[in-house]
Amino acid sequence: MIEDYTDIGATTPQAMDISRKSRNLISNLIGDSSVEDKIRQRCVIATGDPSVSEIMRFNMNPVGTGLKALANKETIYVDIRMVEAGVIKRGHESLIKTFIGCGEDLVKAQGITRTSAGVLALQEELSRSIVVIGNAPSALMTLCGLIESGKVVPSLVIGVPVGFVNAAESKDRLREMAVPSITTIGTRGGTPIAVAAMNEIINIHVRSRD
After folding, report:
1. Domain that holds residue 154
2. Burial classification of residue 172, based on how many CB atoms lie within 10 Å of its CB (0-12 exposed, 13-18 middle, 19 or more buried)
């Protein structure tokens, strides 16, 4: 029942009440028949934009593989610190690491973005992990290259970078791959959608254990 559905991030009676009311409103707009709908709901709430539900795409059972990765305590890798700050730390035992700040020597040597350098520097750790990219198309492009080469096989990629340079293209590329993913169509995306999608998977993980 949606009336009983609350988010793990809602820790006070007032927050729980707001969460329930938001879920009720949004479920009437976009539906409530699947775990994917739960993620759509949370992303719509995070952005205040019901049309976000229409641009979200789910490939190869991403929720199921994400839940399995959380159960196995796999690391969650994120592109920037803003995403790291937003991901719920309660209800799971997965470490959260950021790409930015890793591989600084590659930034200088190759002239690439800091997030791309982080992906390359941490590539040996990324298989079986969850990767969440909300802001950096270059990082997603680099990750896609590693996946295509067979060097990296993540359990789940939440790839929703925002922008006008390679954002849409990087997500199109990811959707063509045989890897579980959550993406958005076009240039829209960003931290709120990336964090909301990851946090809803954590929320489902917690509720599945209750």
Report:
1. 55-209
2. middle
- Yes or no: say if 196 and 42 are a contact pair by the CB < 8 Å rule: yes
Six-digit token string for 161: 């970078």
Retrieve residue 102's tokens: 């890793």
Mean pLDDT, all residues of the chain: 92
* 141 to 17, 40, 59, 166: CA distances (angstroms): 40, 24, 17, 8
pTM of the model: 0.91
Q: Could you tell me the CATH number of the domain that includes residue 103?
A: 3.40.50.10230
Residue 147 has pLDDT above 90, yes or no: yes
Residue type, 199: N
Give the pLDDT confidence score for residue 133 in this predicted structure: 98
CA within 13 Å, CB half, 168: 7
Ranges of H-type helices in 56-185: 62-71, 81-86, 104-110, 114-121, 137-148, 167-175
The total number of structural domains that make up the chain? 1
Q: Are 136 and 157 in contact (CB under 8 A)?
A: no
Task: Single out the residue of 19, 17, 1, 9 nearest to residue 91, CA to CA.
Answer: 9
